[in-house]
């Protein structure tokens, strides 16, 4: 089964970070979130992979190349204009073959893709959607299912008093090729806005409603694995600290310590708190204290005499001497 990594979006809710990089390149534990996804695909045997690109595409191709360093064979589909959540998949249809996986390149997860594939192949559905139970349905589209897991409807971000389900759609899908029979004709997408290309299409507004209208079977595969779509800056911090604490299975690159102190500690500063991840080649001046949770990025420079707590210092960022940084994300423009 081949895979498609969705990597074309603008990531507007992660601005200002995404003014200068695509959302899949935003780092979690000093590695772009898309790198974590590629490594996940490789672990589960999804080695033939394509990614769609639009926003700062060269940053992605320069980083990942042909994918061989990450255990996959990676090719690309460029979108001059964004084609929507499903339109980009249709553009790559010739690559995807008879059965395929679609996964976001900007979500952090350690989903068991092997188990999802077994579920998908063991049912008669044209599609399988990964879902996860959530406490706050107002933040997600939720799937309404029967006892067999067959999907009979959706609600978009319902309040708790109106929610008929707490199964959030994770945006991780497996499809049979017949799914393309249910795409809207070019130029007829209900989700398209003025200026969108004819090939624009959306899963939630165009494709899934047609499956429901035609009584075409498709299913929910409920997962217990970690999943966070990193839709905004708060979720980026949550995902980073979850990864730092081992709540999600991703590679940690660097030295993990229980707090960090350079130089001689002052008598009244008390014990250090952790965890703190020190990225490769970071430079930390004398008399610096870092209390966790904290991530210091690859090549970051922390000036002497500084105090940090509850921070994410992105790769290459610099903090001047004698600075105090608390509860913040520090980055550097390219």
Question: How would you describe what is shown here?
Answer:
This protein has 334 residues and is of the alpha/beta class. The protein folds into two domains: 2-244, Spore Coat Polysaccharide Biosynthesis Protein SpsA, Chain A (Alpha-Beta Complex); 255-330, UDP N-Acetylglucosamine Acyltransferase, domain 1, CATH 2.160.10. 19% of the residues lie in helices and 30% in strands. It contains seven helices and 22 strands. The protein has helices at 33-43, 57-64, 84-91, 93-96, 113-121, 203-213, 233-244; strands at 2-7, 27-28, 31-32, 48-53, 73-78, 99-104, 108-109, 127-133, 141-145, 151-156, 167-176, 219-222, 227-228, 255-257, 260-261, 276-278, 283-284, 289-296, 301-302, 307-313, 318-319, 324-330. The chain has a seven-stranded mixed β-sheet with strand order 5-4-1-6-11-8-12, with helices on both faces. A hairpin with a 5-residue loop joins strand 9 and strand 10. It starts with a strand and ends with a strand. The model has no long low-confidence stretch (mean pLDDT 91).
Keywords:
7 helices, six-stranded mixed β-sheet, 334 residues, Spore Coat Polysaccharide Biosynthesis Protein SpsA, Chain A, 2 domains, seven-stranded mixed β-sheet, UDP N-Acetylglucosamine Acyltransferase, domain 1, alpha/beta, single chain
Question: What's the SSE blueprint?
Answer:
Layout: E1 2-7, E2 27-28, E3 31-32, H1 33-43, E4 48-53, H2 57-64, E5 73-78, H3 84-91, H4 93-96, E6 99-104, E7 108-109, H5 113-121, E8 127-133, E9 141-145, E10 151-156, E11 167-176, H6 203-213, E12 219-222, E13 227-228, H7 233-244, E14 255-257, E15 260-261, E16 276-278, E17 283-284, E18 289-296, E19 301-302, E20 307-313, E21 318-319, E22 324-330
Parallel strand pairs: 1-4, 1-6, 4-5, 8-12, 16-18, 17-19, 18-20, 19-21, 20-22
Antiparallel strand pairs: 2-3, 6-11, 7-13, 8-11, 9-10, 14-16, 15-18
